[in-house]
Amino acid sequence: MGLFAFVGPAAARACACSKASPGACASLQKDDVVFLGTVTKIEAAGAAAGATTAASNSNGADGAPPSSSGASAGAAPITRYHFKIDERFAGPDTEEIDVFSGGDDGDCGYRFMKGEQYIVFTQQEVEGRLFATTCSGTRPANEGRALLPQLRAMRGGNRVASVFGVLRRANPPFLAQPDDPDDPLPNIALKLRSRDDRFTTSTDANGVYSFYDVHAGEYRFTANLPTHMELTQKTLPGGLPPFKIPNDACYEYDVDALPTGHIRGSVLGPDGKPLTLASVELYRADQYKDTRPGLWGFQGSKGVFDFDHVGPGKYILVFNRMNRMDPNSPFPRTFYPGTPDATEAEPIELQDGQQVLKANIALQNGFPTRQIRVHVKWQQGMPPGQTTVIAKADRGDNPAAQKTADGLYQFTLLASARYTIYAWEDLLPQRAVRGGGRNRCAPPARIETQPVTLDGSDEATEEITLNFPALECANP
Fold first, then answer.
1. What global pTM score does this model have?
2. How far is CA 347 from CA 23, 100, 261, 337, 343, in A?
3. What pLDDT, in 10s, does the model give residues 419-444?
C-alpha cells in the first residue's frame, strides 16, 4: 500500500522506514483497504489465521495490546485490532474490520490504542489477513488533517493536491517545554519555486496547505514566517533542502517553523586546543537530568560543535553527560564553562534569534592515557581486501584506531583498562579462487590474527605486532 510519498515523524521504537523519493500518485486501487476507524477491541492472535489466545478486553489502564505467546518463534507477537469504520476510502463495504500487527513486521508493527481513532493503510499478508505498519502512513486521526481531504478527493475521483501537508511552529527534539506543543501556523503565505514555475498558497486555520497542478521539477519551498523563524524540519540542520517531484505526484510534506537562535563553541582540552572528538548535549536549564538525553551535538576534526534553531531561554551545556570512560575523549563529565558540578553550571541565556558563538567548555583532570603503536603484517604480502584493527577494553569504551601508514595503526589507551587487540581482513570476492585446473583453491572469506592482551598502564610496551597467517584453502 503506497498511495502517497510521506515525509513525517520517524517511526517509533527501533523500526527503520525507507524514505522513497516522491513518485507519481498511485491513486486508490481495487484491492486497497484504507479507512478512518476507531479501535473497539484488542486481543492477542496466534501465528495461524483464526488462532487466538484468550485475552482481557480491558487491555490494562492505557489500552495497550496484551502480550501473546502464540506467535512463531523469533517473531514479534501478533495482535488483532477490531475497528469500527467511521469513514471508508477503499476496501469492502463493511461497518467493522479486523487489522493485525506484529509478527514478521517486528518493531514496524503499529500499536493502536483502544478507543482511539486512526487513519489506517493496510497491506495483505499471509492467509488474507490485513496488517498495518508504522511505515505505511497509518497515524492517529488528529495527525491526518492534511491527508484526509486528499483521501476524500481520491475516493470521489476529484483533483488531488500535488504537494500538501501541515506547517507547525516547533522546537528541536528535547528542547520543547513540556506544556508547549507543536502548534499549527494559520494564514501563512507559502511559495514553491522551480527554475520554470511559481506556485503560491497559504495555510488554513489548522496550518494545512495544498499546492495543485505542480509540474515535474526541482522546487524550493519558502514561507512568510514571523521574525526569527526559519522554514525547515526539526530534525534537520539549516533550512529546507530543495526536492524533486514528477508529474502527477501526491506528495505529503509536513514542514516546521523553528527559531533561528544559535549556540556554537568548542570543547577545549587543558592545552586550550579543541578535542578532535567530543559529544555535547544541550538542555533547557530547568530540564537537565544526567539520566535523560538532551539535544545531541558532535565536535569533530573542525573543533566546533553547533546547535541551530534554538529558541529564547536559558540553557545548560554538558560534555560527556553519561560520564563515560572514553579513551577517544578522555575527560569526565564537564558543564559549561568548565565545572564537573551541575549546580555550578553557568546557564547560557539566549534572546530570540540571538547568536552565541563562543560557548567554549574548558576541560581539566583527564583520565590517564598512553599511546600504543600496532604493526600489522602478512606472511605472503597484503591480499586485496578490507583490514579492521580492534582494541577491545575490559572497562570503559573501546578506543578508535588511527591509521598512520600502511600496516601501521595507533590507539589511545586508558591506563585503568586492559585491552585485547586483534585484526581481521575481509578478502575481496574476486580473489576467492586462486590457481587453475586441478590446483584451484578457495581461500576463506576472512582471515584473523591472534589477539594480543596488554594493560593500559604498561608503559614499557610501546608497540605490538599482529601477524596474519598464510592463506590456506578453505575447501582444498
1. 0.80
2. 47, 49, 15, 9, 10
3. 999 999 998 764 444 555 555 667 78
